[in-house]
Amino acid sequence: MIVVQNVNKIYPPHRHVLRDLSLELNNGDRLILLGPNGAGKTTLIKCIIGLTAPDSGRIYVNGVDVVRNPNGARESIAVVFEEADNSYSYLNVFDNLLYFGLLNKRSRYEAKRRAEQIMAMLNLTPYADRLAQSLSRGMKQKLAFAIALMKGAPFLFLDEPTLGLDVESQHHIRALLTEKHNWWNAVLITTHDIPFAHAVGNQFVFIKDGTIIWRGTKEHFSTPADLETHFLAAIRSYQFSQEVGD
Fold it and tell me: Where in the numbering of this chain does the ABC transporter domain appear (predicted)?
């Protein structure tokens, strides 16, 4: 379980990025964070994994206080940031996966077996001998996802995971995120891709100006269009309430 309690984050001089924000991520959740650019989604992820300290509030990852022990909490989370290149350009795809498996204290046999399994799931096997630096933007994004899976952490965080991916690659990742397996316990995803969000998510949080303006489950939306309509209505309602408040 991940618990975020009344978290605030202010960037100098007066940019209030997260405002008294609270949420939980439980086993089985595929939680989708939807919000416009600058809403605070990536900052929230950075706070949860201990890269950025909140100015107030508490965050717990499997009972570990992230503020007091960021490294301990980080061991439980694998994360892929938007357009992040976490691979080594001079290594091929397979060796990148093998390296990160060994880095996460797997035996060479287990790291090799897991790397082969992940490559097969993500259709990366034909690219096993390709240097990371020679891959397209979309393939690098897929490799970053594969490297995150090598960690074997109970929580998976994905920041705009479909960015730059072709339709087939999006399908592979969507299928992997929705299939029943034991690769992780829960996943948190930020995305602007409404059809992808609807297909993958079972929990939804709408965020604007660092504030949660709506939260609910997939039962509220029968189609991607329903999700988009509900999201836009929540944004307009929030903006109207802020204008009235001013």
Answer: 2-234
| Residue tagged 């929230």 (tokens) | 44
Please report, for the chain, the start and end positions of each structural domain, with discontinuous segments joined by +.
Answer: 1-76+187-246
**Domain 1-76+187-246 architecture:** 3-Layer(aba) Sandwich (3.40)
Distance CA 218, CA 239 (A): 24
206: tokens are 């709408």
User: By CB neighbour count within 10 A (0-12 exposed, 13-18 middle, 19+ buried), where does 180 fall?
Assistant: exposed
Beta-carbon neighbour count of residue 76 at 10 Å? Answer: 18
Residue pLDDT tens, the chain, 246 long: 899 999 999 998 889 999 999 999 999 999 999 999 989 999 999 999 999 999 999 999 999 999 999 888 888 999 988 766 678 889 999 999 999 999 888 899 999 999 999 999 888 999 999 999 998 887 888 898 899 999 889 999 999 888 878 888 888 888 888 887 778 899 999 999 999 999 999 999 999 999 999 999 999 999 999 999 999 999 999 887 776 665
DSSP code string of 129-162? TSBGGGS-HHHHHHHHHHHHHHH--SEEEEESTT
